[in-house]
Design a protein that fits this description.
There is one protein chain. This protein has about 325 residues and is an alpha/beta fold. It has a domain of about 210 residues: Aldolase class I (TIM Barrel, Alpha-Beta Barrel). The chain is built from 12 helices and 8 strands.
Length: about 325
Amino acid sequence: MFANPLQPNTLKGVWGTLQIPFNTDDTIDYPLLNEGIDFLVRTSLHGIYSNGTAGEFYNQTEVEFDKINEMLAERCKRTERAFQIGASHMSPIISLERIRRAKALNPQAFQVIFPDWLPMTIEEQILFMIKIAEEANPIPIVLYLPGHAKTKLSVKDLEYLSDHIPGLIGIKIAMITPDRYADMRKLNQRMSVFIPGHHLATGIKEKIGSGSYSNVACINPDAARKWYDIMLSDVERGMLIENMVRKFFDEEIIPLASRGYSDPALDKLLAAVGGKIPANTRLRWPYKSADDKQVVAVRAAARKILPDFFDIQ
């Protein structure tokens, strides 16, 4: 019996990522990971997800993948918390095998990316998604479309996928520019659209997004959830907070991205800046991590620009 699979109208809100802490020898620090899971299940987040970009799904063994998700599923079931499992991989076969093994854990949804060695035609996208959805059934699928993906989809492509893949309930996308708002509103009526956390108030105001797999929640999950509730009750107040959040990202995070720090490095930095989530900033070889001096500097800026994100417990 599967536990309340998500639907397009129930996939919404602020979801927090599971970050994988590494020891200096690149092994996973499982005791610290356990602390991180324990912390996240006690927050007010709408749910938790594993093996997104911040979970470094692309740099794990399959034994590690299984253990990470067994730990998450056990804790979420015990505490009755919603969770999704990222079954993404650059290889379509490995992604399919991850779903086959993790299906018994009964997540509320699986997240996948398109195979990422070659760009895919629409016919190949359909073939991939049909088999993924069939294997996952009755657990639904959320398609993750990072900005750096080789396969680029238009709104019409996404509508076509929605028509042909009944198990596809949502997408996670990168930035949306104002010229695409009208098309995204139409898409958000067909499936749940998740957008970057620091743009979520705009997404709610413009009716282009239903929620976020939130980078902002890395700083403070409960503050991110409180901000979401404000957006729903007073969107203009939510926009004022977004202005401050985006100021922080523009001044402190985007410059680091331009210096070659990856999204997982920045998400781990944000968690260290917030000081709430038990984790560390270390990425597994060969990727570059933020250091302690950067954490101290960015934390000072965050406390100045976003003081409320540190006060909320």
